[in-house]
Design a protein that fits this description.
By secondary structure, the protein is α/β, with parallel strands linked by helices. The protein has two domains: 2-195, Ribonuclease Z/Hydroxyacylglutathione hydrolase-like (Metallo-beta-lactamase, Chain A, 4-Layer Sandwich), CATH 3.60.15.10; 211-250, no CATH class. It has helices at 50-56, 83-86, 102-111, 178-186, 211-223, 238-246, and strands at residues 2-7, 16-20, 25-30, 35-36, 39-40, 75-77, 98-101, 124-127, 133-135, 138-144, 153-159, 162-166, 193-195. Strands 1-2-3-6-7-8 form a six-stranded mixed beta sheet. It has a five-stranded mixed beta sheet with strand order 9-10-11-12-13. A two-stranded antiparallel ribbon has the order 4-5. Helix 5 (211-223) packs across helix 6 (238-246). The relative contact order is 0.12. It comes from Syntrophomonas zehnderi OL-4.
Length: 251
C-alpha cells in the first residue's frame, strides 16, 4: 500500500491524500486550500476556470481524478463537511463515487444556501460509522469523531497487509468527547502509519474553551441583554448553534 500526500502537510486544511495498492486508487478528502504559499486563498478564487486553478495551485495536478480526465480513481472518501476537506469535490469526475456519512452529505447540501459559486454535485455513497466497507482491495472502517463539524469521521484503512489510520479533524473538548476515547480504544494498535491532525501543535499555551464553558458564556451574555441577540457562527458548527439555542431555556 502506497501513500501520496498532495497537500496538507505544512498548512491547515486543503487536504488531499492518495492511498493506493496495485489494484485500487483511493483519495482521502478533497480539500479546498485555505492558504497558498503562506497567503490566504480568497473565496472568489473558486469562480476561476479549472485551468487557472491548476495554474495557481488550488487544484493539484492529479491524473485520473478530475472531470476532464479519464477516471482512474476507484473512490473518494470525505471525512467531514468543512470546505478544506471537501471543497474540490465539484471538480471530481462524476464516474468516481464519493463516500460520505449521512450527516456530512446533509451539511454539504445545506451549505449550498450560503455559497456564492457553483454547488457541489456529489455522486454520494453513504457509509455508516464503525461499519467497514470495501473499495477494491482496501478495507475502510470509519469512526465517529468529536469535531465542530457534525458527523465527522476518522478512517482506518487496510490493504496489502498494511494498516493506515487517518484521524481527520478531531477534538476532545466538545459534546462528543467520548468519541475520541472510543476511537483510541478500538482503532488498530498495530497500524503501520498514523496520519493525525496537527492544528494545535506548537500552540500549547493557547487557551482551549470546552463546549460546556462556551455554552455557559453564551448563556451569561444573552442574559445580560435586554433586547434581541444576534448570533453568528460558521454554518457547519451545529453544536455551537445548539449551545446558543439552549440559552433560550435559561430565561
Amino acid at each position: 500500500m502506497r501513500l501520496t500526500i498532495y497537500r496538507g502537510t505544512h498548512e491547515i486544511g486543503g487536504t488531499l491524500i492518495e492511498c493506493s495498492t496495485e489494484k485500487t486508487r483511493l483519495l482521502i478528502d478533497a480539500g479546498y486550500p485555505l492558504f497558498l504559499n503562506g497567503m490566504p486563498v480568497e473565496t472568489k478564487a473558486a469562480l476561476l476556470s479549472p485551468e487557472k486553478l491548476l495554474e495557481i495551485g488550488v487544484l493539484p495536478a492529479i491524473d485520473g481524478l478530475y472531470s476532464w480526465d479519464k477516471p482512474s480513481f476507484d473512490a473518494v472518501i470525505i471525512s467531514h463537511a468543512h470546505i478544506d476537506h471537501y471543497g474540490l469535490t465539484k471538480y471530481i469526475h462524476h464516474d468516481i463515487p464519493i463516500y460520505v456519512s449521512a450527516g456530512t452529505e446533509t451539511l454539504i447540501e445545506l451549505s449550498q444556501t450560503f455559497k456564492i459559486y457553483d454547488s457541489y454535485p456529489i455522486n454520494a455513497h453513504k457509509f455508516k460509522m464503525y461499519e467497514p466497507f470495501s473499495i477494491g482491495d482496501i478495507l475502510v472502517k470509519p469512526y465517529l469523531m468529536d469535531h465542530s463539524a457534525f458527523d465527522a469521521a476518522a478512517f482506518e484503512l487496510k490493504g496489502e497487509g498494511k494498516t493506515l489510520i487517518y484521524s481527520g479533524d478531531f477534538r476532545g473538548h466538545g459534546r462528543k468527547a467520548v468519541c475520541l476515547d472510543v476511537f483510541i480504544q478500538n482503532a488498530s494498535k498495530q497500524a503501520d502509519l498514523l496520519l493525525i491532525e496537527g492544528t494545535m501543535l506548537g500552540r500549547l499555551d493557547e487557551k482551549v474553551m470546552t463546549e460546556d464553558l462556551l455554552e455557559e458564556e453564551i448563556i451569561n451574555e444573552v442574559k445580560s441583554r435586554n433586547g434581541p441577540v444576534l448570533f453568528q457562527c460558521s454554518r457547519t458548527v451545529l453544536l455551537t448553534l445548539f449551545s446558543f439555542c439552549l440559552s433560550y431555556f435559561h430565561f
